[in-house]
Amino acid sequence: MAAASEPVDSGALWGPARPEPPPTRFHWVHGDNIRVDPSGTRATRVESFAHGVCFSREPLAPGQVFLVEIEEKELGWCGHLRLGLTALDPASLAPVPEFSLPDLVNLGHTWVFAITRHHNRVPREGRPEAEAAAPSRPPTLLVEPYLRIEQFRIPRDRLVGRSRPGLYSHLLDQLYELNVLPPTARRSRLGVLFCPRPDGTADMHIIINGEDMGPSARGLPAAQPLYAVVDVFASTKSVRLVQLEYGLPSLQTLCRLVIQRSMVHRLAIDGLHLPKELKDFCKYE
Q1: Please, what is the Cα angle at 244 between 148 and 8, to 5 degrees?
Q2: What predicted TM-score, i.e. pTM, was given to this entire model?
Q3: Which segments within the chain are labelled E, that is strand?
Q4: Is the terminal CB of the chain with fewer CB neighbours within 10 Å at N or C?
């Protein structure tokens, strides 16, 4: 499988020797309560709080991020989205387990991380656990456009979920420098990827709104096909896939960054003489 994100020290551009991975889609095999839209990019749990396990349609490439945005929440349930990887072929699962944790994990060759409102960061080796739990401020997109994870660097722009602008957006979200979305909130973006190691294993990393939570699992079989696992569990009702740009940024992305750089805050974009679709793209994407 071709590497999906540009290695940190490599100057090679995407081309025939390093093709970009195909767009991500949900697998047609999923939990009983899941409905996937015709495009394969949106998964919704239609009842109950369980039977919401989904998979990527294809195995991930090393460094490829399977990124979802939380679209709908449902009150009254305890628990949130769960995210991970499996070496099991989804087509071989009949039936799909009710839960990713513990049912799918108990089948073996599966690693799943339960997303919580706080404390998702994994302590680094040799660092105190309190440091991992401490909140941090992600670098602004205009200063550090790439997220670096082991040997990969990933365009940060679309990794970050953004709330809908409100009355006080100019105070909370100046120049897109602050991410104020909790991990489990609507429009929050969460992703999973794996990074191969020299010993033939791989580390699984979880990304939450543009921040790497650290290696949440180690020792994954890097030589085996690894599928993404998304459990649309409990208070998380619907998610949609977000596609990333792994090569050079598109002209559309560059134009958006120029517009954002010229604005004091997102509400100011409404005053520009631009089509509404372009304004929404600059504010929300």
Answers
A1: 25
A2: 0.81
A3: 6-7, 34-36, 42-45, 53-55, 66-73, 82-86, 110-114, 146-149, 152-155, 189-196, 201-208, 211-221, 227-231, 236-242
A4: C
Average pLDDT on 111-121 reads: 89
- Burial of 275 per CB tally in 10 Å (0-12, 13-18, 19+): exposed
Q: What is the mean pLDDT of residues 33-44?
A: 97
pLDDT at 124: 64
To the question of domain 26-121+141-246 being in CATH 2.40.30.20, the answer is no
The pLDDT, as a whole number, for residue 117 is 87
252 has a pLDDT exceeding 90: no
The tokens describing 170, both together, are 């100019």
Rounded to whole angstroms, the Cα distance separating 262 from 56 reads 38
Kindly write down the DSSP assignment for every residue of 235-249, as one continuous string.
Answer: TEEEEEEE----SSP
Instruction: Give phi and psi for 264, each to the nearest 5.
Output: -75, -40
User: Tokens standing for 108?
Assistant: 């073996």
What residues form DSSP beta bridges with 18?
Answer: 15
Using CA atoms, how far apart are residues 170 and 147, in angstroms rounded to an integer?
25
pLDDT of residue 13: 38
Q: Flag the least confident range among 77-81, 157-161, 182-186, 209-213.
A: 157-161
231 CB neighbour count, 10 Å cutoff: 30
DSSP state of 26: B
Report the distance separating Cα 158 and Cα 240, nearest Å. Answer: 13
CB atoms within 10 A of CB 206: 23
* Cβ atoms within 10 Å of 219's Cβ, excluding its own: 14
Alpha carbons within 13 A on the beta-carbon side of 27:
25
Reduce the DSSP state of residue 1 to 3 states and report it.
coil
